[in-house]
Amino acid sequence: MEVALFVPCYVDQFYPQVAQASLELLERLGVRVVYPEGQTCCGQPMANSGYEHLTGGCNENFIRHFDGYEYIVSPSGSCVLHLKEHLSSDKNKQQAVAIRPRIYELTEFLTDVLQVEELEARFPYKVGMHQSCHGQRGLKLSQMSELTAPMFSKPGKLLHMVKDIELVTLDRGDECCGFGGTFCVAEEAVSVKMGKDRVADHLRHDAEYITGADMSCLMHMEGVLKRAKSKTKVIHIAEILNSSI
Amino acid sequence: MRGTSKRHADLADVFNADEARVDWHDETLWFVRTKRDRATHGLEEWESLREVASEVKHHTLANLSTYLEEFEQQAIANGVQVHWATDAAEHNEIVCHLLQKHGIDRMVKSKSMLTEECHLNDYLADRGIEVIDSDLGERIVQLAKEMPSHIVLPCIHKKKEEIGDLFHEHLGTEAGESDPQILTETARQHLRDTFLTRRAALTGVNFAVAETGEMVVCTNEGNADMGAHLSSIHIASMGIEKLIPKRAHLGVFLRLLTRSATGQPITTYSSHFKRPREGQEMHIVLVDNGRSRQLAREDFRNSLKCIRCGACMNTCPVYRRSGGHSYHYAISGPIGSILAPNLDMKDFADLPFASTLCGSCSNVCPVKIDIHNQLYKWRQELVKAGYTDKKKTAAMKLMAATLSSPAKFKLAGKLGRLTLRYIPFAVNNGLNPWYKGREMPSPPKQSFGEWYASRKKEGEG
Ligand code: SF4
Description:
The structure holds 2 protein chains of 2 kinds. Chain A is an alpha/beta fold.
């Protein structure tokens, strides 16, 4: 099986280890991974700020690099959701329409397509799992507390396959961390407060690491943790699933 | 606060200066949200109730003019006088005229967000008519000369000590008294006197039934009944979207409303008003005030399904941490952020941006309004209409140009990692607001793209 890896712009620039872990993990599971060079951004930062009309260039670039792959996988729920809902093109309409359903967030690809049942991973730490909103409510990676429906969690299922990991239970399972793209700067005060509160929930339960399937939320919480000089670190779920300490 | 150009972000910044207060506000509302969860998670049919309610509302909105006519006919047949108001000004004039005609200068009102939307109290006060709000929370904010900060819990932003101070000043309780029981009793006595001495009462309308021409008002304090039953003239102000086709549909909405609002199985009083009692006059004012405009906007039509339960506010992580007043509109929170720009795109251009688009609101909403999608769509509309900061537009254009070109992206990334000045999201780099409360990410030596290229080279070499 062949998979094209989409590495969101900020992951490429600030968290290359997350993309490396995603790539290695997929390879270890027997997938041939292609990284189309020249890819950039999904366009979400502009679109969520009201500038969807400026995302044409990003869309064309994305289509140019990802057209024709059966599976496109990315370690970022938020970017995946944006592409699934908004990837469009006047020039390459058909290609855009064809790409949308082929884009997968990493953990959903692992559980739904590869149907991974076991992993060679060990991570002997106390870990808090942050459900990103776009992953959870948008992509339905896990059940949300708002609905009266059976609980499930795709990232949670994968984490349970990791040896010696101790997952903590949070007081508010699916509260937003307050990142929200440009919200984090446009509404700086509320965003920081939300980040502090989200982090505090993990700290109250002695998490040594905060993980999640969306590096953008983790980047925000990392900023909050570092400012508070906390020992708790953030780590992308791909890094845990790929770890063998 | 109303009518000024203050922005949500600035008002929220002020609200956040007192962190302990933000925590208290957040926890209080989260408590209501968890009560709602307990009330709904026990009902197997909850999700199908939501679906049915959403469809009934959809059907009603699609046939609104027919149902409005049916309602009007039935109401008139019941002996009710029906008035139509295209906007807030007309609504206020109609109410004022009715009162003046009867020589009434004091009115008791039960909570109605529509009259807040129309600024009725101020309008009547300017014309020498005193209005007393009879819902306890509403009375408290009225004494404090504030707007409600929440549509169901109007004074949720006030602590009991602050309410004690207000009551001391206005209702003569002892200084420092903050026992909720004593304060409530004081308010009761005060309101009882009001009910007995007013000849006119105004109520809102929660649901109006086209089939029967009756309307239903839901309160927990029975204050709407007290006002309406003791007055010689009862005026009901109702937005045209409050209609449902048949009485049979009521059960669906009554089951949803209070569970979503406060976690109660049903409101304490669900009062039906159909015809005036002997000697009484009953009036209904049907108000548009932008609703038909919103109905015509396909993307936002669904917002008119709202039954004003407040669940979207209680669940909204931004609302909980910025307070209702930061929305500078009568209806705050996620749904208010959709309704307000319909009335004035310029004044309320900031509101659709006061959200992380987390989607929690859409999923608690008992009538399944796609709130967060509508917020996203409003952002596009507002930017296209030119109601955004020019600096932001310039930054976005630069960002779009950078991100749509692999070569520019590579270069900017390199520079960015060197100087740490550039995060795609930190659009305003001059004074980086990211850094105020957060550290920047530490820069890696190489990007993933660079790492991949060197790995490929090694592999080939
Ligand atoms: S939008 Fe939905 S959740 Fe919000 S107040 Fe209206 S009905 Fe309730």
